[in-house]
Give the backbone structure.
Amino acid sequence: MSGRRVNRGGPAQGHRAAPAPAEKLQKILARAGFGSRREIERWIEAGRVQVNGRSARLGDRARAADVILLDGRPVDVVAPAAEPARVLIYHKPTGEVTTRRDPEGRPTVFRSLPPVRGGRWIVVGRLDFNTLGLMLFTTDGELAHRLMHPSAGLDREYAVRILGDPDALVLERLLRGVDLDDGPARFEGVAEGGARGTNHWYHVVVREGRRRLVRRLWESQGFPVSRLIRVRFGPLALPRGLPPGRWRESTPAELQALYRAAGLETPAARPRATPATPATPKGPFGRGRRGSGTRSDRRDRK
């Protein structure tokens, strides 16, 4: 028997693997979640994108080794995913940040997520440190951008506990709109959800992702928020039975609903088991884009 070593897989010794093919800039930036391809084409024409120190032009291509800047800031190149588009439904607990790294060393939501082959998770709508509830993550950057863009008009529904008992005039002001330090804002819907002592629960709907918007709206009327839970984002609700700190894959039907809400064609998805706790909107505002401005009957929230 010969003592010669046999290479059983992988590239032949002495040969390097061929580099990944170059891709159009708008495709690279869209996959990373910066915007839609058409938007990025306009940015390239406006001179906002640079590659290896020179202004990019429409039709330019790049590879992972190239240095890409958008508005002077470096862009992390995300390789094409080695699997179909995925969406994770995550129940964020309090005490986690929604950035990949935290300078204060606090735990991040990304430590709880499974690895992605050849890609990365992109967050769809952040939550602050003390807010819990539904978060969505996807490997499709264009889907993430479309879902978060104001033009999508997607509802974000929250269950909120406040200290105090606002009267009808306060609720009308919050529905009509109030001026905050970064511009006017309002609730698209308010529904009362019960009381216990001096605490009152409400379900509210907003269509913006501005920082701490729900908290600031209530605080503008003198009602501090003691608990805030996101229970729905667009067509998907927080699944019953999904504990804080846990995630599950979206079903094909949920994936289709998100792509439809974003105005995108649904890509092929690998089959997944249907969970026992479907993420179907069951709150006072139900499914869809618009909330109601009515108050519900009072009842204790257990």
About this structure: The chain has two domains: 23-74, 81-302. Residues 193 and 202 are 5 Å apart (CA to CA). The radius of gyration is 23 Å.
